[in-house]
Structure formats: structure tokens, C-alpha cells
Write a structure and sequence with these properties.
- The complex is a heterodimer of chains A (268) and B (310).
- By secondary structure, chain A is an all-alpha fold.
- Chain A has one domain: Cytochrome Bc1 Complex, Chain C, CATH 1.20.810.
- Helices cover 67% and strands 0% of the residues of chain A.
- The longest helix of chain A has 33 residues.
- Chain A is globular.
- With 310 residues, chain B is an alpha+beta fold.
- Helices cover 35% and strands 27% of the residues of chain B.
- Chain B has 6 helices and 13 strands.
- In chain B, the strands form 3 sheets. In chain B, strands 4-3-2-7-6 form a 5-stranded antiparallel β-sheet, with no helix packed on it.
- In chain B, α2 runs antiparallel to α3.
- The radius of gyration of chain B is 32 Å and the shape is elongated.
- The two termini of chain B are 56 Å apart.
- Classes of the chains: A mainly alpha (268), B alpha+beta (310).
- At the A-B interface, α8 and α9 of A face loops of B.
Amino acid sequence: MATRTSRKSARRRQLEQMLLTPVDWLEERSGLVGGVRGFLFRHVPADISWPQTLGSATLTAFIVQAVTGVILAMYYKPDPNSAYDSILHITNDVTWGWLVRGMHRWGASVFIILLFLHMGRVFLFGSYKYPRELTWLVGVLMLVLGMLEGFTGYLLPWDQTSYWATVVGININGSGPFVGPFLSNVLRGGAEIGSDTLARWYSIHMLILPGALIGLIGLHLYLVVRLGVSSPPWSKKAAGRERPEVETRRRGLVEPRRRGDGGEDGGA
Amino acid sequence: MAEEQEGHAEIAPEEGEEQHPLPAATILPAGFAVGVAILLVGTVFSWPVFGIGVGIAVVFGFLWARELVRGGRPVRAVEAVPAEAEEEEAEEPARYGRDKFLELTTLGLGALIGGVVTVPVVGFAIAPSFIGQGDEDIDLGPMSNFPEGTFVVATFLSQKGEGQVSRRTAFVRNNGIANGVPSFTILSNRCTHLGCPIQPNGPTQEAQQIQTSAGNVTLIPSQPAGFGCPCHAGAYDTEGNRTAGPPVRALDRYQYKIVNGSLVLSDRYSVGKVVGEGASAKIESYTRYDSGQHVDGPDEWMYPISPRGV
């Protein structure tokens, strides 16, 4: 790539400049392009591999849940008298409703499984150690919120399984010492599961928890980028801790930085 | 990074403690913690205790914060501040009263706006869970539908406006006349382990549908030897006492009254255990608790207050 840059003809360079003008316009005013570029082309240790992709996979699963959930919300009715009927409507009548609901339903399990695999990778590789403790803590919080997503989402189809699973789930919460009885009342929105409970859990499931998750994902990613990816335990060198050299974003945009300049990432 | 750390570790002992005096030992954080502890205990036991805890926490918290801001106690400041602190102060731009006032105003207004937004929202989301949670009275129809000595499985809507989700079941046994008044044993069908619906272990007869002021009521006469829960195999005898499995107490019961010859259910209450049978049974009754919460024995202290008791 780098060697070809010098061979570019003047006309070709002119054409490139022209095509990139809108991008330059955006970059000059927001710095977004350079920011995205810095995020995507940051340095990582040379000897990382598939296990380090589990975090991105989890993020992808979350995005699938968010997108399919938003679409399901267009047809779902969080009311005891129509919730189950609206689920039947989504599954049987709405175009590709079975597909979107299936993605959301099975994707939920995929999301939780990936969360645990990602956590296992971080644990087994020792990536939670200094200076990445906070990244781990934020991740644990997201694990809890993810499980709560599963718990609250399970009630929404409003069939016998989901109703009684929720009765049992809330009573397990309620048997916690001291705060248990109050916690279960708050979860139910009263002394008994009723219409308030369904609307409340719908709100928690699709507004409160995803909002919190999105915020925490942002924080998690910020920490990952700031601290770099840790090299595997068997790595010979302490790779991945170097910061890329500072360069102008404009130059970085038009002429990609030469491979081999920055040291550690050459072989990846 | 590793090198930096090592370097730091080497320097620290050489420079000694005098140059970076540690903050003076203080009891203020401990006082703050005690206040918070009392406050938490107060939320469970009583509001006055809660208030005392808040007071202690606020006073100590304020003193603590003030001490932190001042950078130690005044005495120590005189001792150990000498040149260094003065230099630092000199580097900072001079601040005027108006500047500080504006900073405090901004923070204060921000806190006020935050509170004005948060308090109603949190109250709106949480308070209704604890207010107005009494049970409606349920008319189960004339007493003649309940033959003496046998159970009738009565199914009804506990709140008509809520629809099918409020469907509840009670096991009603007519104990005959005791001391000149009709006596009933009325058990809730919710397992006290985790709230699954329990089943009568015994033959049942044909269902009978009747209409009362509570709407449609289904009555199924039954002769159970006891009750069993399909979820985790909890078992109860005909007085609702636990005989096997994980339940933490006896079955809940309903209070009842007789209105114009009809049996009317009112509040549901929790039962520790029942001694005796039928009309002569002695019932250890408690405020209503949820399934899974102990009302007696050593586990009881973990659930000092039922939200229904508030």
C-alpha cells in the first residue's frame, strides 16, 4: 500500500482529493473521522487471536437485541389482556415477525452465552489485572444488567410459563434478607403480579436496562481503547501498551500511515 | 510503566514521611459510617432511628468533608505546611468572593434541579408499590354451597378490573358451627416456598359455576388427604401445616365474614403453624408475607417488616 502511494499519478491524487472533500469537511468540523480511524486502527499486541474477538461478538449480539427489540416494540402491547395475543400476531401474521421474534428470543441466549465466554477469556488470560480492574468491574455490572434483561424479558410473552417463572423469580428475590420483601414489592409494583407489573417490566426491559447498558458499553470501550488490549499470558514481550505516535489526522486520512512505522502491530 | 513504578518505590522511603505528611488520624469517617449504619437499620425498624442516623451521617459527613477540603486539621496545617503549600497556593490564580459564590450557586442549583427531577420520578415509580395494597372482599356465594367437613376448591378473580391475571384459588372447608357461629378453614393455594399453585391430593367432583357480586366463582368439591406443590414437591396437611419439602411456613389463610348468609373472603394473612384441627385449631397468625419469607424460628429475624405491615 505504502509503496504504491508514491507511484500515484497527479490526476489520481486529484480525484482522491475530490472524493474525500466531504469527508474532510466532516473531519475539519468534528474530528469524527480521525476518531473512528484511531479507534479502528489502534495498536494491539501482535499475538492476539480469536479469543480476543469475543467482546466484539458480545457487542454485536447486543446490537442485534437492540435492533430487533425496537422493531418488536412496534407490534407488542404491554397489557395483560392483549400481550399474549400481540405475541401471536407478531409470530403468525406480521411479515417476518417469526424471524425478528426468533432473533430476539434466541439472540438473548446467544448474548448471555457470549457474555460468559468473554468473561472467561478475560479471567483465564488475566486481563482483569492492573491497570484494567475498572474495565472488569464495569463488565461485571453489565453481566448483571444482561441477566436482568433476560429476567424481565421472560415475562413479556405473558403465557403460563413466563407468569409462573416470574412468580418464582420474584419470590426468590423476596426471600433475600431485610430488603427482600420490599424489593419484590417494587418489582411487582404492588402486592400481586398484575397489569402494573407487565407495564413496569416492559419499561425496565426496553428503556432502563438498555439505556444503562449502552452507557456502560461506552465506558467499557473507552477503557479498552485507553488501556489497550493485554497481550496473552504466553506472550514474550509486553506488547500493546505503547501509544501510537501522534500525527495529524488529515495526513493520516489521506495518506495511510506506513506499515512498520509503529513497531508492534506489523505482524497482526 | 513497570520502571516508573519501581522508581517510585525507591524514592518513597528516602524522602521520608516529613515531606508528605499523612493526613491526621481522624474519627470523622468512622462517625459517618456509624451514622449510615444507624440510618440503614432505621429504614428497617423505625423512622425516628432513621432520622437520628441521617443526622449523625450529615454532621460527621460535613465535618469530614470540611477537614478534607482544608487538608487536615488546623493544628497540623501550622505544623507541616511550610513552604510547599504556599508555593502551590501562589501558582493557583487568585480567587474572589464572587467567583466562589458563582461556583457554589451553580453546584447548588444543579443539585436542586436534579432533586426536583429525581424525587417525583422515584416516588412515582416506587411509592405505589407500597400504598393502597389491601385486598378486596370476595363474595363466594351462599354457605349452603360448602358442605360441612369437606374442602371446596374456590376459584375467583381477586380484582375484577385486573382480569384473568388476578385469578386466585382458595381451599374452603366448612367446620360447622362452633360457639354459635359458623367456622371455616380457608387456605390460600400459593405454596409458601416460592409461590407456585398447590393441588389437592385427592379426588375432586364436578365443577359448579356460580355468579356473585365478585363475578364468576368456580366451586369444585374435593376430598384431599393433603396438598402438594408440583414445582419442588412441597407438601401440606389439611390444616396447611408443612409436612415435607422446602416450604418455610404453613399455608396462608383468608379472613372471612358471613354477610346475609354468604361467605365473604377478606384479607389474606400468613401462618406460622397450626395446632389442632378445624374449628378448635390454634393458628399462629402474622401479617401477610410473601412466599419464601419465614415468620418464625431463627430465620424470622431476616424479615423484620412486611411491606404490608407498613
